[in-house]
Design brief:
Elements lengths: L11 H9 L3 H18 L2 H15 L1
Length: 59
């Protein structure tokens, strides 16, 4: 999966290694903040679509 913030000169293994250096607690904090942000900005209809897509991915 391509990350929008990745640079063209980075190889996939370099991106993976960079992500692995981030402490798990920091990643969880970032994920929580992103979920709180999306909860604020998305309409109820958009939240429903997002929830259904997440349910399909988990099956």
């Amino acid at each position: 999966m391509r990350n929008d913030l990745s640079f063209g000169w980075e190889k996939e293994d370099e991106r993976i290694n960079k992500g692995m250096r981030i402490p798990p607690k920091e990643k969880l904090i970032w994920l929580r903040e992103m979920n709180e942000w999306t909860d604020k900005v998305l309409s109820n209809k958009q939240k429903g679509v997002r929830r259904r897509l997440n349910e399909k991915k988990s099956v």
